[in-house]
Structure formats: C-alpha cells, structure tokens
Amino acid sequence: xxxxxxxxxTRILGVxxxxxxxxxxxxxxxxxxxxxxxxxxxxRFPVLSLSQATVSExxxxxxxxxxxxxxxxxxxxxxxxxxxxxxxxxxxxxGPDEVAxxxxxxxxxxxxxxxxxxxAHRMHPFGKVDEVEKxxxxxxxxxxxxxxxxxPREPGKRESRYAHTLNSDVEPIEMxxxxxxxxxxxxxxVEDLKQQVSELQEENAQLKKRLRQLGEVC
Length: 218
Description:
By secondary structure, the protein is mainly alpha-helical. Helices cover 46% and strands 7% of the residues. The protein has a single domain (7-180), classed as Arc Repressor Mutant, subunit A (Orthogonal Bundle), CATH 1.10.10.10. The protein has helices spanning 7-22, 31-39, 52-64, 96-108, 113-119, 129-140, 187-217; strands spanning 29-30, 68-71, 79-82, 148-150, 162-164. The radius of gyration is 20 Å and the shape is globular.
C-alpha cells in the first residue's frame, strides 16, 4: 500500500474506522455526520474546520483509490464507509488491537504507549501499557508495513511517542521544530487554505472600511 495520504485523508479514514467500531448503528456516515466528526474538538488533533465541499472532494479522491465506498442504495442520503482495512477484498488485515492503535494515531497524531492505552479504550480495551507496546511492535513489523515509527524522545520525557507512517515512505520519521516542519498538502487542503485567506482578506477590508467611517464621524 502506498503511504501517501494527507492530513485530510487520514482524518476522514480515521473517523470512518472509529465510528464503525464505536457507533455501528450510525454507520456508514452521511456527508454531514462525517464532516461534523472530522471537525469535533474532542479526541482530535489538530482540530480542523473542514467544509462539506472539502470533505466531499477528499472522499472522491479516496473513492478513486479504492479506500472509501459510497452507498446510496439503502437510503436517499449518500453514506460513506471505509475500505482501508479488514474488508472482503482489501489487502490490509489488522487485529482489533492494531485497528484501535492505528486509528487513534490517525485521529490524534503522535502519542506515547500510555496515551494510546487510555485513549484507544473506546475501540479496544488494553489492560496494560505493555499490551500497547506489543501492538506497536506488530504494526512496525507488519508484512504490508511498517505502519508506525518510533519518534525521537522529547527532552524531559520518559516515554517515546509513536506516529503512523501513512503519509511518508521514509523510515523512521524525523521530527523537526514546528516552524521548520514540512507538511504535504493535497489539492483539497490547498483550496481550503485559499478560501480561508480570501475570507480573512474580505473581513480585513470590511474592518478598514468601518474604521474610516468611524473616523469621519468623529
């Protein structure tokens, strides 16, 4: 499997995997439900503010790559499910513990084994931290992988953090200072950023106009 998924793509796939496990009665997800889940402020990092148009465009890209299935047969509203792993004809097969860990890393970024143990319990119960460590080892040695990489330990930290490798073909991941970190952006991400800049420019122009009007009144 080519590991070249962007932030928006991993967020959407992570959400679909999470909801399939935690709220199966509401799965597959409508576009509205999926967008809200991608943008929720809890259990997500970074917090995003995606439009439905952006989510729809990314879904189209994922569908083309065979990672998402669109289904409108049983409902008048189009709904979406993932084909990332553990599907009938999919190439990736993970155990429940592996799914929970990789999904948590897709939703919240790099984490320590202790953080994964407490946060992934919604999808799979880990009794001890060493169970998480064993799962991380399996993902690092997966025949289709590796799917995770250990990051350099941060100064003053007792535990190393682990990250998924779905957006990089280079092992191991090297962490850089935030101001120097290079992030790959998909077409949808670029267009979304352009839209945000345009909106900010419009707000700035309105503020300047308002200030001039107030100056004239005074």
